[in-house]
Amino acid sequence: MNPGDRVRVERAGHTYEGVLLPSSTDEHLVVKLEGGYNVGIDREHADAEVIEEDVYDVVEETSTGRDLSDHDVAGAQDDDGESEIEFDDELPTISLISTGGTIASTVDYRTGAVTAQFDAEDVLRAVPDLAGRANYRGRVVANILSENMTPEVWQELAEAVVEEVEAGADGVVVMHGTDTMQFTASALAFMLETPVPIVFTGSQRSADRPSSDNVMNAVCAVEAAKSDCAEVLVCMHASESDDRCALHRGTRVRKNHTSRRDAFETVGAEPLGEVDYDTGEVSFRRAHERRGETDLAIEPALESDVELVKFTPGMDPAFLDVVEGKSGLILEGTGLGHVHTDLVPRLEELIDDGTTVVMTSQCLEGRVCDRVYDTGRDLLDAGVLEAGDTLPGTAKVKLMWALANAADVEEAMATSLAGELQRRSVPWE
Amino acid sequence: MTEYDYDELGLVAGLEIHQQLDTATKLFCNCPTELRDPEESTRRFTRYLHPTRSELGEIDEAALEESRVDREFEYLAYDTTCLVEEDDEPPHRLDDEALETALEIAQLMDMQPIDQAHVMRKIVVDGSNTSGFQRSTLIAVDGEIETGEGAVGIEDLMLEEESAQRVEETDDGVVYSLDRLGIPLVEIGTSPDISTPEQAREAAERIGMLLRSTGRVKRGLGTIRQDVNVSIAEGARVEIKGVQSLDDIDDIVRTEVGRQAELVEIAAELGARDASVGDTVDVTEVFEDTDSGVIRGALDAGGSVTAVPLYGFDGLVGREIAPDRRLGTEFSDHAKRHGAGGIFHTDELPAYGVTEAEVAALREAVGAGSEDAVAIVAAATEVAESAIEAVAERAESALEGVPEETRGANDDGTTRYLRPLPGAARMYPETDVPPVEPDPSAVPEPELLTEKVDRYQAEYDLDAGLAEQVAYGEYMPLFESVVDGVSASDASGGSSDSSDGVDPTLAATTLESTLTELRRDDVPVANLADDHLEESLRLVDDGEIPKEAVGDLLSALADEPSLTAEEAVEREDLGGVSEDEVREAILEVVERNEKQVEEEGMQAFSGLMGECMGALRGKADGDLVSRLLREEIQKRA
Fold first, then answer.
1. In the predicted model, what is the mean pLDDT of residues A161-168?
2. B64 confidence band (pLDDT: 50, 70, 90)
3. Average model confidence (pLDDT) for chain A?
4. What is the DSSP letter of B337?
5. Whole-number pLDDT of residue B549
6. CA torsion sign, B528 to B533 to B534 to B540?
7. Under 8 Å CB-to-CB from A77, ≥6 apart: which residues?
8. Is the bond preceding residue B420 a cis peptide, omega within 30 degrees?
9. In chain B, N or C: fewer CB atoms in 10 Å?
10. Is B422's pLDDT higher than 80?
11. pLDDT computed for residue A69 by the predictor
């Protein structure tokens, strides 16, 4: 008896008939009944027989989550499996790069959770609304959940973006899980000089629901990728309505809610721009790098030996022993940028030992300033660098990049390289 | 109405009953299950829905059909709704109270609970669910209820979330209210075991009684909906949606049997006549100079008239198949679904301003003879074209007999065409909610309402009528808790020590008679919360206010529900007059009428009683006044 078989199960005098599904526990047989309902039947007390083998190909689905050969459903493919989408000289070419994540995900029967499984062509199929807005190139760099993202994948992604732009892409859309999107966007912002927009997007509500935010986010991301803003951007819902997406600078954005569509916010400023879903119009609030002004360049090297440590009251000083010998340490301090006074000597040792220690604030909003209180002054005396209003996560990525690429790390950390460090504190702008 | 031999016709009917549960919180979040006025909305937002493939890789045709138009949905949110209703937060775990209630209901119907219940997503893209699906869980199967005409099987019981309430249609789409979304709902489906209209009604009544026996179902308009499936041997399965009242069920079944029987006869007659449906034709020219208002209007707006010849149909299109509904009405329903206002057909023409000459020209234009019929649609060209195709299609199925379809209940017991029967395979698992393993042993079996009626008489000395009113009434759970001395806000069950409880007769008469009287006097009784009623009953029971004042108190609370009962007593000055004050007032009355008392003795009682009550303006308990007055009279007699 295997998943996909039509089965008849007797249990306490009642007969259940349907297709056997992969069960997530050993105790239950899960059967999809005629009416569409799934039921779990106690294996121990059930009497099951196979009526017909292999009536449905769910075994294949267990491994891939979905029968990917079933191409004609969304209408983007003809019967031969060839793409029906023809190249249109009038339209710009946008490269869609998939890294996995909710925007391209479906159900995994074994874990019962949502996993990533689409390639870029699948996204076109899943989001038919993209048709007619651009010519598309698609590629898959990774197929991972964004919590499994690594600096190595950031580097592969950066290389892929360069290849796509060299191959003629007028803009790049990166489909990415939302959990760590801000880190990857920051990484690309530091690694790349780009003449075209690089727009990250994803979805907060899974693509397997009719209400998913993936359609509007993808459509708006493509519009942003066609725009004049040659920066690394994050394009996600601006509100809980399906009316417009906000465009955030990759180094200033933060996922500030676990589940809302409008979870992404620019910290310390209003979003850089906006895309109107209805009209596709892209507008910007502030100055930005313009298309074609920069030559394409990449400096992908990263020093991966960098940690981010959040200080909280009661923290065991031994915690800092773990980072001994590391190249870099980002501290997420309290308030203006503080840690317990007793930790200052230990930090001084680390710095003397060659670790670059940079202070950020867990307030997130606002600028670190260690000249105001004694603890701060002691930290500065110990050699701790200040990250200004750089977000802690961004600061970590920046330090990884600076340690590998900058001639003067201290100066790099005090300079805005990709919009991460704002010169003026004007959060209302 | 004609009575049919249902056995001979082979009537098979089943019921689907949807009942909202009266739980403290919604099925997948901790919001209250409270209905709101759209004007109280505090937030609004807009969404679109995009259909997805179901778990087994198919797109439901009905879902696709609904999604073809790019509709915008606007949602009204309240201070009683949260991100879960907005589909901006994953659902919480299945509500325990709702599951327990569903199991209680399953037990009352002798059903077998599912070992491991899986929450499913049922795709619905009309916007009534923000997610684009309704969450539904099969909880139990294979039960049975008794009726006078034999057992009726209960196939399944589902626990699902109620949809959002449609507020209005706009040019862009639909406005929905989120207050109702997520209220737990049980759906109970019977087997097709029902063989007479009376049995359908009896089964529905029985199920309704069992549901209310739990004391945990919502009451009032819209909280229970009944769908009826009907077919006769030569007919077809027809699903009738939205029967609002139990009283209508037998009529609905009777009328549907009649409709199917007539359609079968019509099909036989059409077969004998070798009837057929011709090609649709544009007949705008025939009506170029028409004086028919409807047609003139359509043509002046740039529209067209389309027609379909129905060979051999003469006289049958106008034939009545249900009270005041003809075969032509069915055609018309289909035309309406495609946006037309309706149809005209030759069985009813000339009429509506269409002349005899025009009818003749029409017949000529489509090649229809005197034994044939013609149906026409006048509307905007595109609508007229698709509507007449729909009419032709429906006429084709008239040749076969009864089409399978979903119909909607009308107020007069008839039904109208709604849409084709929905397909299966539009469900996939709700992965955000883990499966639950219901534990039926933890669920107490509730006392049936029929058993309650007996107990109320035996235990509380209520008369049979009042006992039945209370047991079947809206306030049964409140009655039981106040009489048992358990606060209504506490869990039910509780102690049998009735010393803290309110007097059962007081509670019963107040909750039934007094409230009925108030309702009759247009007091907004619906504003009264359980707390109001409970506090008021306690005040009377504790002697804080006389029972004569309870009507005034409840009336005051209904007018201003923000008050507590005690505040209302104070404000309305209903409060207890002390025994001394009562005696004082009585003394005054007795002294004023001293002479009469001396002369008549106890004969003066009834006259003076009225005067005393008047003097106390109903603020004193009648029994007390009576006792003290007797004492005073006796002293002097």
1. 96
2. low
3. 88
4. H
5. 83
6. positive
7. A71, A83, A84, A125
8. no
9. N
10. no
11. 26
Chain B residues in contact with A40 (beta carbon < 8 A): 114-118, 435, 437
Q: Confidence band (pLDDT; 50, 70, 90) for B62?
A: low
**CA–CA separation, B256 and B350 (whole Å):** 30
CB pairs under 8 A between A and B: 129
Instruction: Report DSSP state, residue A232.
Output: E
DSSP conformation class of A338: B
Cα distances from B352 to residues A61, A402, B240, B341, in angstroms, run 61, 85, 32, 14
A239 touches B: beta carbon within 8 Å:
yes
Q: What does the angle CA A150 – CA A151 – CA A157 come to, to the nearest 5 degrees?
A: 95
Residue B99: Cβ within 10 Å count: 24
Q: Which of A295, A300, A280 is nearest to A230 (CA)?
A: A295
Chain A residues in contact with B431 (beta carbon < 8 A): 107, 112-114
Tell if the CB–CB gap between A242 and B50 is shorter than 8 Å: no
CA distance A8 to A380: 73
Q: Give the type of residue at B624.
A: L
Rg (CA), chain B: 32
* Residue to substitute from B84, B116, B124, interface A, most A β-carbons within 10 A: B116
Per-residue model confidence as pLDDT tens digits over B360-387: 999 999 999 999 999 999 999 999 999 9
Checking if the pLDDT of B321 tops 90, the result is yes
pLDDT confidence band for A62 (50 / 70 / 90) = very low
C-alpha distance from B130 to closest chain A C-alpha (Å): 7
Length of chain B counted residue by residue? 637
The per-residue pLDDT for range B181-226, each reduced to its tens digit, is 999 999 999 999 999 999 999 999 999 999 999 989 998 888 999 9
What pLDDT was estimated at residue B600? Answer: 84
- A36 touches B at CB < 8 Å: yes
Minimal CA separation from B141 to chain A, in Å: 8
Indicate the domain borders of chain B. Answer: 6-237, 280-410, 449-572, 579-636
Question: CATH fold of B280-410, please?
Answer: Gyrase A; domain 2 (3.30.1360)
Element (H, E) at B348: none
**Quick check: A65 pLDDT over 50?**
no
Structure tokens at B146: 């008794």
User: Helices B530-541 and B550-559: crossing angle, nearest 10°?
Assistant: 150
Kindly list the residues from chain B whose CB atom is less than 8 angstroms away from the CB atom of residue A30.
116, 118
* A107·B427 Cβ contact <8 A: no
pLDDT in tens, A255-287: 999 999 999 999 999 999 999 999 999 999 999
**Beta carbons of A37 and B158 less than 8 Å apart:** yes
Distances (CA, A) of B600 to B59, B604, B607, B623, B636: 92, 6, 11, 22, 10
User: Which whole number is the average pLDDT over A80-88?
Assistant: 55
CA separation, residue A111 to residues A25, B136, B554 (Å): 10, 20, 56
The confidence score (pLDDT) of residue B492 equals: 42
Partners of B115 on chain A (C-beta within 8 Å) are 11, 28, 39-42, 45
Q: Which residues pair with B427 in a beta bridge?
A: B122
Record the tokens describing residue A324, joined without a space: 């001994």
> Residue B457 and residue B70: Cα distance in Å, rounded?
60
- pLDDT of residue B619 exceeding 50, the answer is yes
Residue type, B595: K
What is the phi/psi pair of residue B543, to 5°? 80, 10
User: Does the CB of A208 have a partner CB in chain B at under 8 Å?
Assistant: yes
Residue B389 in this model has a pLDDT that exceeds 80 = yes
Average pLDDT score over residue span B550-557: 90
> Helix or strand or coil: residue B450?
helix
CB atoms within 10 A of CB B421: 15
Which positions in chain A touch B428 (Cβ < 8 Å)? Answer: 107, 208
User: Can you tell me the distance from the alpha carbon of A170 to that of A90, in angstroms, rounded to the nearest whole number?
Assistant: 12
